[in-house]
Amino acid sequence: MSEYLLSVHHDPADDERMAAMTPEEMQPVFEAVEAFNQKLQAEGAWIFAGGLMPIEQATTVDNTGAQPVVTDGPFAESKEYLGGFWVITVPDLDAALGWAKEGSRACRGKVEVRPFQAE
Amino acid sequence: MSGTAAPGAAIERVFRDEHARVVASLVRRFGDLDVAEDAASEALVAALERWPADGTPPNPGGWLTTTATRKAIDRIRREQQRDAKHQAALVIGDDTPPEPTGVVADDRLRLIFTCCHPALAPEARVALTLRLLGGLTVGEIAAAFLVPETTMAQRITRAKAKIKGARIPFRVPGPDDLAERLGAVLAVVYLVFNEGYLASAGDAPVRAELTDEAVRLGRVLRSLLPEEPEVAGLLALMLLTDARRASRFAGGELVPLPEQDRGGWDRAKIAEGHALVRECLARNRPGQYQLLAAVNAVHTDAPTAADTDWAQVATLYTHLQAIAPSPFVTLNRAVAVAELDGPEVALAEVDRLPLTTYHAWHATRADLLRRLGRSAEARAAYDAAIAATGNSAERAYLTRRRDQLSGP
C-alpha cells in the first residue's frame, strides 16, 4: 500500500463569489464532501483529512539563520494556496486517481495527487 | 553493437522482436523497469557472444527471457550485499503472484498501458513505448524526434522515476476505463506511424524504421486485444497507408495519390488491410481509426485514380466529422467534395477552416485555386505551403507544381 496526498488548491480570487453563497447553496458541497469522507473510511483508504483556515491566518517561522524569525503570512507568494487535503492509503496511482476524481467532484475543485516518499 | 556482421544484425532483429516480451516479463517478476531493462540488455550482449559460436537456440525468445531473468537475479544478489534493505523489497516482489490483469493477461499489454498512462506527459509516453516495447535505443528515439540525446534521456528517466515514485501500476485497466486508456495507447502508436510516414523535418522524407515499428506494435495490440474494433481499425489504417510507401516518392519528390504507380503498391498489405476493414464493418462499432481505414480501403480498391468512389470517401469523412469533429477532417473531406461538386464548392469550405499554419491546408488551397485557373492566388498558396512544411520531398513536389503555373 502507498500513501498519497490529495490536495485542493484555493484561489483567493474566488473568495468574494464564495462569500456571496448562501448556506443553502453551500450545503450540497458540504454534504458531498462528507459523503466522500465516509466512503474513504468505509473502504479503508482514509488516513486523515482536513480543511485549512484562510491564508491570512498563516504564520511562517524561519529558524535557519542565527535567530528564529516569525512572520505573518505564508512562506510563498502565490496566486493559489492549499485549501484542504486528504491523506489516503491505496495500492497504486490508479486507485489514488480514482479517489481524486470523486474528491474533485465532491468539493468542486481541482485535486493534486502526490505520493508520499516511501518509508 | 555498430559494425556487427550479418549474424549480429540477425540477433538484433530477434532481440527487437522479443524485447517487449522479455522486458515485460521481467517487470512483472521484479517490479522494476530499470532492473528489467538492464537485464534485457545484458541478455542481448550474451546472445551476441554465444549465438554466433553455438548457433541460434531453437527458442530465441525463451533463451533471452531465461538469460535476462538470471542476469536480473545476479544483479539483485550483488545489490543485496550492498544494500540489504533495498534487496529485501525486490525479493518480496519476486514472490508476489501476478496481479489480476483485468481484461487480458499478457505482460506486454500491461507494459504498453504503463508506458501510455495518462499521468505521463504525451511526449514521454511515445518515448517510453519505443524504448521499452520497441527496444529502440535512446539515441534512435532522439534522432526520430529530432531532439538532443540528452533531452530524450532525461525525458525517459523522468518518466520512469514517475512510474516508480507515483506507483503507476503495471496493469491493464479494467473495463470501466479501458476504452479511455486504450485511446491513449492507439494515439501513441499512430503518432509513431505518422512521424515515420511523413517525417516533419530532417533529410529523410520517410522513416521506415518508425512506420515498421508502429505496424509491429499495432500487430502486438491486435493479437492481445482481438475484440477491440479500433485496434483492428488502426492496424488496417497503417497497413493500407504503408502499402503505398514505395510509390509515394520518385526522384526525391512526393507523388500525390492520384499520380502514384498503383502497380508499386504492396498487394499483401492491402489484402490484409481490406480484410481487417471488412471485419470492422461486420462489427458495426465504428470509431475514428476504422473510418480512416475505410477511406484508405476505398482508395486502394480503385484500379485507377479516376475510378475512386469519391461519394463513399465523402460519406466516410462525414461520419468521422460526427464522431471526432476537427478542421483536419473537413479539409480531407473537401478533397472528395472537389471531385464530386467541383473545386469552387470545395474551396469555399476550405477557406473557412482555421488552419493557416498547416502546410496541407495551403497545399489543398493551392491545388483548388490552380484548378480554378486563379494562378496568382495559387502561386501564393504554394509559397505558403512550401514555407510551412519541413519535409524535403513534399517541398520538391510543391515547388514543381508552383513553377508549372501559367500566367502572371
What do these coordinates show?
The complex is a heterodimer of chains A (119) and B (408). Chain A is an alpha+beta fold. Helices cover 34% and strands 32% of the residues of chain A. Chain A has three helices and six strands. Chain A has helices spanning 15-19, 23-42, 93-107; strands at 2-10, 46-51, 59-62, 69-72, 81-90, 111-115. Chain A has a four-stranded antiparallel sheet, covered by helices on one side. Chain A has a two-stranded antiparallel sheet with strand order 3-4. In chain A, α2 packs antiparallel against α3. In chain B, α12 packs across α13 (288-301) and α13 (288-301) packs antiparallel against α14 (310-323). The N and C termini of chain B lie far apart (57 Å). The model of chain B is unreliable at 1-5 and 87-104 (pLDDT under 50). Chain B contains 19 helices and two strands. Chain B is an all-alpha fold. Chain B has a two-stranded antiparallel ribbon with strand order 1-2. The relative contact order of chain B is 0.06. Helices cover 71% and strands 1% of the residues of chain B. Chain A binds chain B through residues 2, 91-94, 97, 113-115, and chain B through 117, 119, 165-169, 171, 173.
Features:
heterodimer; A: about 120 residues; alpha+beta; 3 helices; about 35% helix; B: about 400 residues; mainly alpha; two-stranded antiparallel ribbon; elongated; disordered N terminus
SSE inventory with pairings:
The complex is a heterodimer of chains A (119) and B (408).
Chain A: E1 2-10, H1 15-19, H2 23-42, E2 46-51, E3 59-62, E4 69-72, E5 81-90, H3 93-107, E6 111-115
Antiparallel strand pairs in A: 1-5, 1-6, 2-5, 3-4
Helix pairs in contact in A: 2-3
Chain B: H1 6-30, H2 33-54, H3 60-82, H4 84-95, H5 107-115, H6 122-133, H7 138-144, H8 149-165, H9 175-197, H10 208-224, H11 229-242, E1 249-250, E2 253-254, H12 267-283, H13 288-301, H14 310-323, H15 327-341, H16 343-351, H17 359-371, H18 375-388, H19 392-403
Antiparallel strand pairs in B: 1-2
